[in-house]
Design goal:
The chain is of the alpha/beta class. The protein has 7 helices and 8 strands; from the N terminus they run E-E-H-E-H-E-H-E-H-H-E-H-E-H-E. It is globular, with a radius of gyration of 17 Å. It comes from Candidatus Aphodenecus pullistercoris.
Length: 226
């Protein structure tokens, strides 16, 4: 498992995949990332965080769950690295259910802290079908109130081109950052729509090429970790 990478284009940053204490939501139909756990996540995380150089002044932390599910020693170590390596901007991911805890969590770090969430789609019906835990009536404006970035999911059976394009337009208009992630088959029962996936591979690179906010991820490892 590769847990450290450097993103040299777009939002230039160091990127780390840490281990949390386990995703507490664990209901998303398409996700099996919660299987990335161990008996001592701190030891795993310490070895990864030792690789951080601070070269870009930006550190992006994911942990197959929400940032609030990192153990306390790992959180303290990240805060120390922020100071030691001169990190100015720190990115985390968090589930919608943690939206009222973001400010408190951010206060633990002496730098600018940014959060993104896996909204996956701005179609409330799709979010319900995927068991995202984000109500159908939650608007993009409400999401933006808490999160500067979002992750979108593309290529799942039951999804349409119109949904994909609509969600991308909303993300481009409303957020500072967004990723468009092509669904990769995994251990869940969710299936990829191969026709939609072929369309996405052919269409989205050109569509997103001029965006300064978007990252298109066609494989789970496109950001260098996993």
């Amino acid at each position: 498992m590769i847990r450290y990478s450097r993103i040299e284009k777009g939002l230039r940053r160091e990127f780390v995949l840490l281990q949390g204490l386990g995703c507490r939501w664990r209901k998303c139909t398409f996700c099996d990332y919660h299987l990335d756990t161990s008996g001592d996540p701190y030891e795993v995380n310490r070895a990864v965080l030792e690789l951080v150089s601070g070269d870009f002044g930006v550190l992006d932390v994911i942990n197959s769950g929400s940032a609030m599910e990192l153990d306390g020693r790992t959180v303290d170590l990240i805060a120390s690295i922020v100071v030691e390596k001169g990190i100015q901007d720190l990115w985390f991911e968090a589930h919608w259910m943690y939206r009222n805890r973001l400010a408190d969590f951010a206060s633990r770090f002496p730098c600018r802290v940014h959060f993104r969430t896996g909204v996956e789609s701005f179609s409330g019906q799709l979010r319900t079908a995927w068991r995202k835990g984000i109500g159908e009536d939650v608007t993009p404006q409400e999401v933006r109130r808490y999160f500067e970035g979002v992750c979108l999911l593309v290529g799942v059976e039951g999804q349409s081109r119109e949904d994909v394009l609509s969600s991308i337009r909303i993300a481009e208009d409303s957020f500072d950052y967004y990723s468009v992630n092509l669904f990769c088959p995994n251990s869940t029962s969710v299936r990829r729509d191969e026709e939609l996936s072929r369309w996405a591979k052919a269409t989205l690179p050109g569509l997103l090429a001029q965006s300064t906010k978007a990252e298109l991820l066609l494989e789970n490892t496109d950001l260098g970790v996993g």
